[in-house]
Amino acid sequence: MIDEEKNKSSIKRRDYFLLYLPSSSFLYLCYFFLLDNFMYIRENMIESDYFSYTLPQAFG
User: Fold this and answer.
1) Domains of the chain: which residue ranges?
2) pTM to 2 decimals?
């Protein structure tokens, strides 16, 4: 009985870890995408030299 509960908890923890990895990378991609769009919008709105110089360097 106790061993069964231990197995369940370890499986749960592993599932959470496996779910956490893709979700964290997905959140990172979303953050990067939003940041990219935000910089692009700022660049077009303000038309400052700062953003036009940093954008090509930052995003390759």
Assistant:
1) 2-58
2) 0.28
